[in-house]
Every structure is written in structure tokens, then in C-alpha cells.
Amino acid sequence: MNAKPPPACSPGGRRALGRAAAAALLLAAGCAAAQSAQTVNRCGADGREYSHTPCADGRAVNVDDARTPAQRQAAQELAAREARTAQQLVDERRAREAAAARPPPRQGKSAKAAAPAAPAASGARRSRKPQRSPVYVAPPAAAASAPRR
């Protein structure tokens, strides 16, 4: 049986391309891991520069990751969980800020009628000052010219 490879646009072809991409990715990751095992030199007067090439006043630094695969996996899971928690906190903060930025809802007649009952229900009563009736005073010129009775 001669099986032809599926065309790239078919679902089977996409899977084959996906497998090839995954293999290339694993190969690249393996190369990167091999490169990380290289010697890194700490250079500069204060030791704040790092280089793959040796420098005059530098010293070699061990950069190998001594963690086990299980420890790396646990660290990645922890980082992902913390990233999700951080995003959740950001979303909650934005929702609170958006709610605070919105104007308060307008009160209709039914809401206004219910509003005075709220302080009485809580036991707090406001005392009102008695309103004074307005005092009308005539201007001095008008009082002098008005006829007396």
C-alpha cells in the first residue's frame, strides 16, 4: 500500500504540520538547554555585566539549573496560578473603579418616598428647627410718608 501524505490544507495535513512544528520546537528547546550549560562570565568593575566571552577582570559563573524536572514543573504551575490570581485582582480593581466612576442612580418618586423611612427605621431621628415666619420691614422713606391713622 502506497499511502500518499495528506495535503497541507486537510485536517490530517494540519496534524502532520503540527507534529513537525512540535518536533522543531523540541529541537530548539534542546539547543537552548545545551547553550545554557555554557560558561557565563561576570565582568566589569562592579560585576554587573554578564558575557559568554571571557573578559579580563571577569570570573566564571555557574548558571546550570539544579532543580529537578518536578521542581521546575511545580514552579511553573505556581507562576501560572499567581498570574491568574493577579489578573483576577486587576479585574476586580477595575470593576470597583468603574463602579465608583459611575454617577449615582437617579431616584424616582418611589425611591424618594422610601428614603425618609430609612432613618426612622434605624432608630436615628433628626430634629428640625422650627421655621420662622418671614419679617417684612418697610423702607424708612416709605414709613415716614405713609399716612397715620
Description:
The protein contains 5 helices and 3 strands, in the order αβββαααα. With 149 residues, it is mainly α. The protein has a domain at 67-101. A 3-stranded antiparallel beta sheet has the order 2-1-3, with no helix packed on it. The radius of gyration is 41 Å and the shape is elongated.
Provide the fold topology:
Blueprint: H1 11-36, E1 40-43, E2 49-51, E3 59-61, H2 69-101, H3 109-114, H4 117-121, H5 140-145
Antiparallel strand pairs: 1-2, 1-3
Please sum up the structure shown.
By secondary structure, the protein is mainly alpha-helical.
- Beta strand %: 5-15%
Q: What's the tally of helices? A: 5
Tell me the quaternary state: single chain
N/C terminus separation: 134 Å
Shape: elongated
Taking the sheet with the most strands, its summary is: 3 strands, antiparallel
Determine the structural class based on helices, strands and strand pairing: mainly alpha
Strand order of the biggest β-sheet: 2-1-3
Give structural attributes.
149 residues
